[in-house]
Amino acid sequence: DIQMTQSPSSLSASVGDRVTITCQASQSISRYLNWYQQKPGKAPNLLIFAASNLQSGAPSRFSGSGSGTDFTLTISSLQPEDFATYYCQQSYSIPYTFGQGTKLEIK
Amino acid sequence: EEQLVQSGAEVKKPGESLKISCKGSGHTFTTYWIAWVRQMPGKGLEWMGIIYPSDSDTRYSPSFQGQVTISADKSINTAYLQWNSLKASDSAMYYCATVEDPMVRASWFDPWGQGTLVTVSS
């Protein structure tokens, strides 16, 4: 199985901050990496697919980059509604695997 | 766009059986795969398996193979996740989600159902 490691596990930031979350795969997954946002008590929601493609309806302040084993999710200017947990997920091979999550909290 | 509606919360005793459902409301249910994802309390997301309702082709995560059964009834646009003998450790939120084609590497979970909370306690 491909292991996905996110960092940091948690992060405190302020409204307006630029935030970066990283995700590392245990082997090369090309660009087959997706990002999800999950708010408390809600189902996850797709933000970025195939490493850098913004899902329809997702705000443009979210962006993704990377290939191979190292990937990044960036929020250019944090908004109050962005405080949530973020997960990366590889679709390179079954079994699909997720990172352990990054909880983004208000400073 | 396909929308997924899951069955309601369940409270069961250890050893009991359970089948939860995920119903698609769009007209393309049989052209997508349905995945099941577990989220234990306060924990992350774990992929359990996936089914193609059109022909019931099913793939399981090794972690869940033999522990659950995934099935579907395409005539009613519904996928299922089933346990024969629940354990306390099965207590979790379970989500279904659509995947366009897992045989294509560029695939992702979207949309998701609202989740079904399963509580197993004596």
Strand content of chain A: over 45%
Number of helices of chain B: 0
In this structure, how is the largest beta sheet of chain A organized?
Answer: 7 strands, mixed
Overall outline of chain A: globular
Largest interface (CB within 8 Å) is between:
A-B, 27 and 25 residues
Helix/sheet category of chain A:
mainly beta
Question: What's this entry about, in short?
Answer:
Helix content of chain A is 0%, strand content 50%. Chain A is an all-beta fold and 107 residues long. In chain A, the strands form two sheets. In chain A, strands 2, 4, 5, 6, 9, 10 and 11 form a seven-stranded mixed sheet that branches.
Describe the structure.
The complex is a heterodimer of chains A (107) and B (122). By secondary structure, chain A is mainly beta. Chain A has no helices and eleven strands. In chain A, the strands form two sheets. In chain A, strands 2, 4, 5, 6, 9, 10 and 11 form a seven-stranded mixed β-sheet that branches. In chain A, strands 1-3-8-7 form a four-stranded antiparallel β-sheet, with no helix packed on it. The model of chain A has no long low-confidence stretch (mean pLDDT 97). Chain B has no helices and eleven strands. The model of chain B has no long low-confidence stretch (mean pLDDT 95). Chain B has strands spanning 4-6, 10-12, 18-24, 33-39, 45-52, 57-60, 69-73, 78-83, 92-99, 109-112, 116-120. By secondary structure, chain B is an all-beta fold. Chain B is globular and about 40 Å long. In chain B, the strands form two sheets. In chain B, strands 2, 4, 5, 6, 9, 10 and 11 form a seven-stranded mixed β-sheet that branches. A four-stranded antiparallel β-sheet of chain B has the order 1-3-8-7, with no helix packed on it. Chain A binds chain B through residues 1, 30-32, 34, 36, 38, 43-46, 49-50, 55, 87, 89, 91-101, and chain B through 35, 37, 44-47, 50, 59, 61-63, 95, 97, 102, 105-115.
